[in-house]
């Protein structure tokens, strides 16, 4: 039984990083299966970064079929695996597709021990150890496809063997946190501050745990932004502001989830966000939607190029040119999508999900969340529509269904 520290070994995005949270925010342990018959932390990291465009692997821990545990993120990292609950949950993924496979004995033992260890460390009760499908909005998801009640029962049956867990040194992270940090200091607490500054877009230089001039400069820039005393020293006030900035926009944390899905509340039409160039940059599906419509690279980050394109769009539309997507600009963007997109291709549920303006238009017409991703909810709505129209019920939007939708 062994935990391998891969926190600095797995593929990560060059352009984005996950946020961090205080430990006190953590309420749940989320159990997943990989839904693949084989795999590894390395393979999932590649998939999540290269295919899904995430900042890094979605899970905090991956448990192989042979019971080896990979530690992928600090538990303070808010990675993507349970949508709106990401902020509160630690993700453990067991390699396997438990719709057709069963977990190995080694894997079950290792997962139980790891879960107990985390429950102890974080004072999480067994009632807060949930399967992915037990999280709000995920009842439809076949994950982890094991009997969670049974799993919880085993957790409470404390076999003596869990102490034998071999933990990597930094796992418990009970190192002392100094209250004041300034230039010349070194240590994991300095590194933590660097990571937080980095995640907020203040570029403190290398994340090396050394409080050098670049780190000091980042602290100064952060203090200026937060409108607090500018001294380049991290004290209680700066920490408080770091917390505040990290939690400023909780809606952003809603998406994406461990597989792209549309069950997040991010896109509730009535409450669309005001989008603008900020530092750190705003990110999300709504940014991507704007980018698709104004012809910017759809990377989901509201950067200078997106701002320029939005200004050009506003100029074309004869509305206020401020580079900010507010209600007026949203309405103008909506008009474009309503009239601009015709039938282009067969739309169906695929892996990864198809995305695009045409899907958004279909979703609006069906009266469901218009996130532009063709997922299970969209398929169900298409089937319902086809049934009501008396045409072939296949959940696929081809020319016939399209014509019925928009006739
Ligand atoms: Zn899952």
UniProtKB/TrEMBL annotation:
Annotated TM spans: none
Gene Ontology BP term (one): peptidoglycan catabolic process
Matches recorded under Pfam families: Amidase_2, PG_binding_1
Domain of life of the native organism: Bacteria
Residues of the Peptidoglycan recognition protein family domain: 1-136
Ranges for region Disordered: 246-268
Residue ranges of every copy of the N-acetylmuramoyl-L-alanine amidase domain listed in the record: 15-143
InterPro entries hit by this protein: Amidase/PGRP_sf, Amidase_domain, LD-transpeptidase_YkuD-like, Peptidoglycan-bd-like, PGBD-like_sf, PGBDSf, PGRP_domain_met/bac
Listed GO MF terms: N-acetylmuramoyl-L-alanine amidase activity; zinc ion binding
Protein name: Autolysin
Protein's organism: Halalkalibacter hemicellulosilyticusJCM 9152
